[in-house]
Amino acid sequence: MSKAILRTKQLSKQFGKQKALDRVTLAIPENSVYGLLGANGAGKSTLLKTMTGILTPTAGSLYFDGHVWSRKDLGKIGSLIETPPIYENLTARENLKVRALMLGVPESRIEKVLQTVDLTQTGKKKAGAFSLGMKQRLGIATALLGNPKLLILDEPTNGLDPVGIRDLRELIKSFPGQGMTVLVSSHILSEIRQMADHIGILSHGRLEYEGRVDQGADLEKLFLDIAERGRVR
């Protein structure tokens, strides 16, 4: 197996009496697209938020690039969780300039990431007037500014039309060829099948399956069987 860029060991997160993550152990191979599957409420967003320092785990360990995760590693992790963090009264370039100043990265990165997400032609158009797909791509551009080794995307195709979904899928699939690992969460099986090399399936806070994507396997049956087991446990 290739080197894991991010690994968790017995990771748990509890909110009062509710156990949102229950001893999750997973490994995300470097330079791959890893699909994190789970029904709504399975714990996907909670897991991603622990990986990005938004939440602190109750128990367990998190490792990044071969060492224990620390907040210093956030400079090598780009993320888009929930809604894109954009200023609607600013243009795409202005949004990225604000973020570049915060990160301390050169402005030369702005044009590069705009090209990557195909937003170079937006000119003086304010981000508030962007389509949902354009806002998603601007959010991804913001996450890419620091040239991360790991990009984390939470339900990135939510609300997109078929063309937007296709374009975003192809963009995500291109990143491993640029030396970047992508962790993408979703509850849409067909999308994960088309873009991911590896998958993990969460159910009620537990990682019930992890492995390579087998195009010949019945992913829907596997997912539903796991969801049903979790419901009756």
From TrEMBL:
<dbReference type="InterPro" id="IPR017871">
    <property type="entry name" value="ABC_transporter-like_CS"/>
</dbReference>
<dbReference type="GO" id="GO:0005524">
    <property type="term" value="F:ATP binding"/>
</dbReference>
<keyword id="KW-0813">Transport</keyword>
<dbReference type="InterPro" id="IPR003439">
    <property type="entry name" value="ABC_transporter-like_ATP-bd"/>
</dbReference>
<comment type="similarity">
    <text>Belongs to the ABC transporter superfamily.</text>
</comment>
<dbReference type="InterPro" id="IPR027417">
    <property type="entry name" value="P-loop_NTPase"/>
</dbReference>
<dbReference type="Pfam" id="PF00005">
    <property type="entry name" value="ABC_tran"/>
</dbReference>
<feature type="domain" description="ABC transporter">
    <location>
        <begin position="6"/>
        <end position="229"/>
    </location>
</feature>
<keyword id="KW-0067">ATP-binding</keyword>
<dbReference type="InterPro" id="IPR022501">
    <property type="entry name" value="ABC_Gallidermin_ATP-bd"/>
</dbReference>
<dbReference type="InterPro" id="IPR003593">
    <property type="entry name" value="AAA+_ATPase"/>
</dbReference>
<keyword id="KW-0547">Nucleotide-binding</keyword>
<protein>
    <submittedName>
        <fullName>Lantibiotic protection ABC transporter ATP-binding protein</fullName>
    </submittedName>
</protein>
